[in-house]
């Protein structure tokens, strides 16, 4: 009981602090939803059946998969590591070591909040996409849920590793932004993976976001997940998680 109470209190406090950051709420929650609705409504080609997608529309498969990925990438590589490095810079974690609440409890609270925020954003993507644009819910719903959990684990592990190696908040912000763009490219954000040259697609297959982007796309299209992409994402999760645990500094 004494362990759960501080965690619950920390989650409540950290949630209020997160909601006081309008930029974080906008980029992580509202921007992916707004992009889905705006692009789906204004680009006619996105609402036409595409043979390469099994007759599905881009707005039914590719676009919601990419917006789902954008939500988690933004939280994992920008918001989470920045918050942790700022706490380390300000001595918050060091001061917490002198109280009954350990720094690890704060880390757990952060992960719970950011995962919950990502779930809210994805729920808005699914519900509003369906209501406004007629986007069907993922046809392989179980595969989507499992892939999403794996994706969150993988990307948050990468975010923790980034927070572990970044010396200060300016570096972590720059590094997170610099990493996001190539990772989103290999996921198929701007050039769908099916249109990539063979070499680029093979590189994409080995990146965490390339594997996750394909898993999300397959789930929306109703296809079962490929074992190779599951293995790639899991491998990145294990490697980044071990590296973060080994290198993370509380002070």
TrEMBL record:
Q: Where in the cell is it found?
A: Cell membrane; Membrane
Molecular function terms from GO? ABC-type transporter activity
Q: What is its main location?
A: membrane
Residues forming the ABC transmembrane type-2 domain are: 23-251
- For this chain's UniProt record, which GO biological process terms are given? response to antibiotic
Show the PROSITE patterns listed in the entry: ABC_TM2
Looking at the UniProt entry, the stretches that span the membrane are 23-43, 63-87, 107-128, 140-164, 171-191, 227-248
Q: How does it sit in the membrane?
A: Multi-pass membrane protein
Keyword entries, A-Z = Antibiotic resistance, Cell membrane, Membrane, Transmembrane, Transmembrane helix, Transport
Q: Which GO cellular component does the record give, naming just one?
A: ATP-binding cassette (ABC) transporter complex
The protein's matches in PANTHER family, at most eight in alphabetical order, are given as: DOXORUBICIN RESISTANCE ABC TRANSPORTER PERMEASE PROTEIN DRRC-RELATED, TRANSPORT PERMEASE PROTEIN
Family membership, please give it.
Answer: Belongs to the ABC-2 integral membrane protein family.
Name of the protein described by the UniProt record: Transport permease protein
